[in-house]
Known about the structure:
Layout: E1 9-10, E2 17-22, H1 32-41, E3 45-50, H2 63-79, E4 85-88, H3 100-113, E5 117-121, E6 126-128, E7 131-132, H4 135-152, H5 158-162, E8 173-177, E9 183-186, H6 191-199, H7 202-208, H8 213-224, E10 234-240
Helix pairs in contact: 1-6, 2-6, 3-4, 6-8
Amino acid sequence: MQAEPVSTSPMPDDWQRALVLMAHPDDPEYGVAAAVAVWTAAGRDVRYVLATRGEAGIAGLAPAESGPEREREQRRAIDHVGVRELEFLDHPDGRIEYGVALRRDLAAAIRRHRPELVVTMHFGDTWFPGAWNSADHRALGRAVVDAVGDAANEWIFPELTQQGLEPWAGVRWTAVNHPGGDRHVDVADGIEAAVASLAEHRKYLEALSGDPVHEQARAQVVRATGGPDADPPRVHFTVYG
């Protein structure tokens, strides 16, 4: 993990609805879920839209079996953090392509859900030196940032308006989760919910390591929220808008 910035500011909290747009099942659980648990406990409406069903994510398990299982795991995961709406856009796992089709699907999701805050994950080339980011994360995050503008523009995807999805210019902030971000959410009250949420991805975690699933989940959430010495644990974002 990168070191916490010297000075950070709290995330904007003048909003009621957030839309988390990410690539795969489990992506929200690696850090963001702790913030989501805090937000929903405060009465805010948070929804998830995932570009894929994660069908290519488990070694040795064919996509036809893996995709439905990972969807089930994600549906169980959201229960722990107060999320009630979950959609999948059915782009191919491992082969998400940045382009007009992805931007259109994301803009449509933004128009459907009409959030004030859009949240996505880091989409730079690397997580930190020596750790390459995945092609799906890079394509998806860049498209999310562009789709916020697309959703507000009546002329870019006029077919969405014809389908009854009116333009939505109500996104006030786009937040990109990254340990180097200059905004933060204090998440001490969301840690346990986030661990339980990530632990629901049992088959996925079992394929990654022979360590007990809850131990893996706790280690990942602690790492994503500042490490074992963080006081308080925080989730960081770079915020645009």
